[in-house]
Design goal:
The chain has 114 residues and is an alpha+beta fold. 20% of the residues lie in helices and 44% in strands. Strands 1-2-3-6-5-4 form a six-stranded antiparallel β-barrel.
C-alpha cells in the first residue's frame, strides 16, 4: 500500500487498532467452510486482522469465536480484505453484529491485550 493509501486508511478509522494475538475460529455463514483456525494479528472495537492457512471468501458473512483469558467472544463479521502472504492468508474482518457482553470483552481485550 502506498503511503497516501495508508494515510487515508488511518484517517477513516474511528477506532484504534491494538496488537492482539489470540486464537480465533472462523465459520462461514454462507458456505461449507467450517471451523477455520487461526489467530488475530490485531483488533479494534469494529474488527480484526486475522491470519489463517485457508482463504476465506471475500464479502462473506462469518461467525468468529475468539478465545481470551476473560472468556470467549462471539461476533458476526464480514470479510473485507484477503491477502496471501506465503503459505498464510491475512484477512480484514469488520464486525456486523455483536452482543453487548461480547463487545465489553472485546473492548477489554483491546485495552489490556491477551
Amino acid at each position: 500500500m502506498t503511503p497516501e493509501g495508508q494515510l487515508k486508511e488511518r484517517e477513516r478509522r474511528r477506532f484504534p487498532r491494538y496488537p492482539v494475538r489470540v486464537p480465533i475460529t472462523v465459520t462461514s455463514c454462507e458456505t461449507a467452510i467450517v471451523g477455520v483456525q487461526g489467530h488475530t494479528a490485531d483488533a479494534s472495537q469494529r474488527g480484526f486482522r486475522v491470519v489463517t492457512e485457508v482463504d476465506l471468501r471475500h464479502g462473506g458473512e462469518q461467525t468468529v469465536l475468539i478465545e481470551t483469558a476473560a472468556g470467549p467472544i462471539v461476533a458476526r463479521a464480514e470479510v473485507l480484505r484477503c491477502e496471501r502472504r506465503g503459505s498464510q492468508w491475512v484477512h480484514g474482518l469488520i464486525i456486523t453484529q455483536i452482543e453487548d457482553a461480547d463487545a465489553s470483552l472485546l473492548d477489554r481485550l483491546c485495552r489490556e491485550g491477551a
